[in-house]
Amino acid sequence: MAEPLSFSALVSRQYVPSSAENFVLYVLLEAVARADGQTGQRLPLNLGVVLDRSGSMYDEHRLDYVVEAVKFLVENLAPEDKVTIVAFADTARVIVGPDQCHDKSFVDRALQDVDLLEIGGGTQMALGMRAAIDEVRKSLGAERLNRVLVLTDGQTYEETACLDLVRQNAGQLSFSAMGVGAEFNEKLLMRIAEDSHGKYHFIGESSQIPGIFEDELEGLRAVTVRNGRIEINLSQGVQVREAFRASPEIYSLGTPLVDEQRRIIYEIGDLEGGVPGSVLLTLVLPPRRPGSVRVGAATFRFDVPAVGERTVQSDVTVEYTLDRSLSSRVSPRVMNLVDQVSIAKAQAKAEEELRQGNVERATRLLNNAIQGTQRMGNVKATQALTGLIEQVKKTQTLQTTAAKTTLLQAQAVVRKTQMLDPEALKRLTSDE
User: Looking at the domain covering 333-415, what would its CATH class be?
Assistant: First the structure.
């Protein structure tokens, strides 16, 4: 059987100046699962779909597009798949149970009558999540791919309860969070997805909803490796300054927690075939004598369906040198991701400055981010950030619908790992 994935540890500089104090080294730890279907059997799905049916979901035909999207999902189920559909507003109700999802006429009637449900007009997302989780847990197991999809267009009550549900089901369920329009709390939905190793989707136009559901289904079908975990054991004297998830989305992994064995563990969840799952570390190295040095040992642990747990390892090594010309060489691939993370950090900082009313600082940060996207040739990110800075100059705030929508669009683009075009990526790889 072919190896189910590749795992590599790439450093920003292979040569490190021996006399440098607190030398910064970026390390990209990346796992890529095979995409050819040879890693084991496809896992049957065990899904919960949580749909907002509050009053605002009637705007822009949002509910109609949701019904279309869920019908597509149900029509493309395999016989062994299970799906629960929950509608929520002030209360929550299971409208399709896991044993009813293959009865297409029943599902059609339930979806067509969703607007007739007497469940109020507010937004109690935690109630909807809890109802779906209860149903999904009835078929929970390692032999199934267990996920809850949550779609909303508004601010929910009891946000802490939503995060508590994610925490309580950690390691057993993942959550994908979808926000429609501009009135939802994007920070909450991002946390739900990040904390459970699911996906976050910003849906600017209601007509995009069916496509997002299709992408979710394709992604679930493409999972070939489960429960991925990156471990790195640091050598003495090596420190971690910060860590970011680098692909498929960019976000902070919080303060690094180093145990007594100088080990750090990063959970990265399930991997779709061909889609890299990676972590970017900022290490600080001490000075050393010239010679080859292992600064860390990285291990990737994962499960293969119908096979069991597997591990692969990769050492993180550098060459200490007195030759300054050697230490000036960098890895284009790693530095490209470093630049993308820096842009994401600048955008997030600019957003925080705007919330505090510091428009001048926010504008300066956004201009710096735009210079980075232009240098990288990332047209989509450049356009998104340019649109955001124009809105900032016009409104001086994020409180208008137009400004919030532009911010959400910029967030969505900058969070995605935006590699260059295929030919440019080939050049980056060949320069390693």
Answer: mainly alpha
Q: First CA to last CA across the chain, in angstroms?
A: 29
Strands (E), 248-335: 251-252, 263-272, 277-285, 291-304, 308-321
Domain boundaries, the chain: 5-35+224-330, 45-221, 333-415
Distances (CA, A) of 220 to 184, 251, 272: 25, 21, 7
Query: What's 45-221's CATH class?
Result: alpha beta
Q: Is 269 exposed, middle or buried (0-12, 13-18, 19+ CB in 10 A)?
A: middle
Distance CA 99, CA 135 (A): 10
Q: How many Cβ atoms sit within 10 Å of the Cβ of residue 81?
A: 22
CATH node for 5-35+224-330: 2.60.40.3670
C-alpha span between 168 and 357 (Å, rounded): 36
Contact status, residue 26 vs residue 10, Cβ threshold 8 Å: no
Taking only the tens of pLDDT, the chain with its 432 residues reads 567 899 999 999 999 999 999 999 999 999 999 886 554 567 899 999 999 999 999 999 999 999 999 999 999 999 999 999 999 999 999 999 999 999 999 999 999 999 899 999 899 999 999 999 999 999 998 889 999 999 999 999 999 999 999 999 999 999 999 999 999 999 999 999 999 999 999 999 999 999 999 999 999 999 999 999 999 999 999 999 999 999 999 999 998 889 999 999 999 999 999 999 999 999 999 999 999 999 999 999 999 888 889 999 999 999 999 998 998 899 999 999 999 999 999 999 999 998 898 999 999 999 999 999 999 888 999 999 999 999 988 888 878 888 899 999 999 999 988 654 344 444 444 444
Its pTM stands at 0.92
Q: Which residues contact 236 (CB under 8 A, 6 or more apart)?
A: 262
Q: Do the domains at 45-221 and 333-415 have one common CATH topology? A: no
